[in-house]
Amino acid sequence: MNINKIQEGVFLNKKVLVRADFNVAIVDGKIQERYKLEACKKSVHHLCAQEGARVALMSHLGRPDGKVDPDFSLNQVRDELEKILGKKIVFVGECVGEDVAVALGFLKEGEILLLENVRFHEEEERSDPEFAKKLAENFDAFVNDAFSVCHRDQASVTGVTKYLPSYAGLWLQEEIKNLNRVIHEPKLPATAIIGGAKIETKLPLIKKFEETYTYVLVGGRVANEAIDQKIQFSPKVILPVDFAEDRLDIGPRTIQKFKEIISNSKVIVWNGPMGKFEQSPYDQGTRQILDIIADSDNFTLIGGGESVQVLEERNLMGSISFVSTGGGAMLEYLSGNHMPGIESLRAI
User: Which of 142, 135, 143 lies closest to 97 in space, CA to CA?
Assistant: First the structure.
């Protein structure tokens, strides 16, 4: 699919609305998923390099259920975002209307506008066309740099594209390129590692990888449910042969077997932890699998909030070829499902 790209747009003296993903965990005021804030950096700098361009960043945070809630205000990410982008961030307590128009008018050269949480408006998640129109009305162009919401048909993702010239940001393009690489051009032997909690969300992905990959290693509650439900797979799909206590982690023989397969793989894709990783000693499977992946000289791709959380905790982000910001979006894309946010950027 050919999509419109930010490199093809001219943004001189334009007001540009950028959909980013700042939906991060915040604990005691500290940002837990900094990499999500970093994802929009290249696109923002690309836009700011064009004379007179004024940039506003738009995102959601959490699930405020269409109501204003200070616990979900994006003002909480402003300081960290300022450090990452190296630019002054001006926060406005709305995402539509006159407040946004006025803030854009007062924006100085080199400053970036940060809009308030789009999910403070219940119209966002039901993709209300009038709300999308309001989001768009203060701007001349739209850039989507939030791969992680591209499986959603929502006003700030797809709705605004009906009212503004729209482009894929640089990070969104990187996501597509790297995910396409593991889908369409996997060097063999290729191994997918699938963990996490819900068999109903992971089973389509296991089946998809089963078609083209050498091995699919399954852990976490997904493996427990597959065994309990007696789901039949081909010999490519490797389920645990032993477990830790109460089946809260894969066991030592399974860890060793998985490590041997991973160490001989040329492409490795991982989504979802191997056990209840947040509680010792049930973190051993996840941590040991991560260590062998991080040591690999071959192409490695990891996505999903829980998997990436372990990466960040252990300062191993730089040891992975590509870290996707998508959890559900990554699952949907790899499974070959409908991605409204990307399809709405299709070049005509």
Answer: 135
